[in-house]
Amino acid sequence: MTDKLYYNDGELRAFDARVLSCREENGAYSVELDRSALFPGGGGQEADSGTLNGIPVTGMYESDETVYHILPEPLEPGSAVHGTVDWALRFPRMQGHSGEHIFSGTVHRLFGGENVGFHMGAGEMTLDFSAELSAGDIARAELEANRAVWADIPLRSQLPSDTELRHMEYRSKKELAGRVRIVEIPGVDMCACCAPHVARTGEIGLIKVLDAMRHRGGTRISLVCGEQAYRDYAALHRVNAHSSALLSARRLETDAAVERLLRENEDKHSAITALKRELLAFKAASLPETDGNLCIFEDGLDPVTLRELVNAGVEKCSGICAAFSGSDGNYKYVIGSKSVDLRAVSGEINAAISGRGGGSSAMLQGTSTAGRAVIEAYFKT
User: Fold this and answer.
1) Between 277 and 146, residue with greater pLDDT
2) Mean pLDDT of 124-142
3) What is the mean pLDDT of residues 288-296?
4) Please, which residues bridge with residue 81 across strands?
5) Model confidence over 40-88: pLDDT tens digits?
6) 282 and 297 in one domain?
């Protein structure tokens, strides 16, 4: 059994221990120590990084209360070892995990929601709750959680006996076996947890909800804390400052500027659509009547406008009306006819114009990689 130093002091950055065993395992070495400040992972949090006698710890795992450290080099059993914790990696994770306890405990206390899932990624964390939470519920829980951070409450860790545990009220995401460690934030939360935590809630700095969605009858929350919350805000501020400059708007008024811009674009789009329809009516009226085929080329027409143009064209010809929009080697087409079964001849047409597409007996849609001269020559004959 390894003495897990991070249980009582999550902020221990270096430690001394003795090597109990070392065995080769899959081309590396699995080292057991009598004590360790390195967390092997668990409870939704990844394992620590660090060193033993300057040798990098490349992996960790736990079995039967014993922590094993994976190293690329062996260590002599019985020898003393000096270990270090990658603090730049550890501290933001502790901020996040302790912040998750505060937020989950607050949701449980205010709304009775159980945390039924937790994952800590490289950036934000994902929390799944059994209760459906409204936007107002989430905002209230977020504010209450941050008030617990600002209160700078000391965290407590204990390993109660089985008898003591039976008389304790605490949260747990799953059924537990063996020794159960309880992490308490007085007045806020009491939860079973195996991970290292900050010493005081003030070290978390900030808890921020990024997103929320309904999930399996409950609510899924995306959350950031501490350094990750700072990095998220810094990136958000940088993006918003750029948007503010582009929109000539104050930094807290970019949303109104975007809404105004979208309305203006919608108005312009409506005006352009109206002009396109007027132009289409003019083009349709100017199409010549013929006993043969009509082949039309127009730039900038969308598929809907192409179809409308072809619908007008089939009334002016006894054969096929084919409309193309684009450039040589990159056309979109719509082909229509009242007298020809287009589905039956679609293979021939696509072969002739290097096209891909299909449709019904009355209309085909697709693309063509042929040049205009080739297309015109085919429909002319």
Assistant:
1) 146
2) 97
3) 94
4) 17
5) 998 889 999 999 999 999 999 999 999 999 999 999 999 999 999 999 9
6) no
Query: Taking the mean position of all CA atoms in its chain, how far away is CA 46?
Result: 19
Are 372 and 315 found together in one domain?
yes
Task: Let me know whether 72 and 161 are in one domain.
Answer: no
Q: Are residues 27 and 15 in the same domain?
A: yes
Which of 85, 103, 132 is the last residue in one of the domains? Answer: 85
pLDDT at 176 > cutoff 70: no
277 and 298, same domain (yes or no): no
Q: Domain containing 110: what range? A: 90-243
CATH number at residue 328: 3.10.310.40
User: pLDDT at residue 219 above 90?
Assistant: yes
Q: Are residues 233 and 158 part of one domain?
A: yes
Number of independent structural domains in the chain: 4
Mean pLDDT (whole number) for 350-369: 96
d(Cα 97, Cα 91) in Å, to the nearest integer? Answer: 10
The residue out of 85, 100, 127 marking a domain boundary is 85
Return mean pLDDT, the chain: 95
Q: Are residues 14 and 116 in the same domain?
A: no
Given a contact cutoff of 8 angstroms between Cβ atoms, the answer to whether 49 and 86 are in contact is yes
**Tokens describing residue 255:** 């949303």
Indicate if 221 and 151 belong to the same structural domain: yes
pTM score: 0.78
Give CA–CA dist 68/9, Å, rounded: 19
**pLDDT given at position 204:** 98
Residues 6+ apart with CB under 8 A from 127: 100, 103, 104, 115, 117, 118, 220, 221, 223
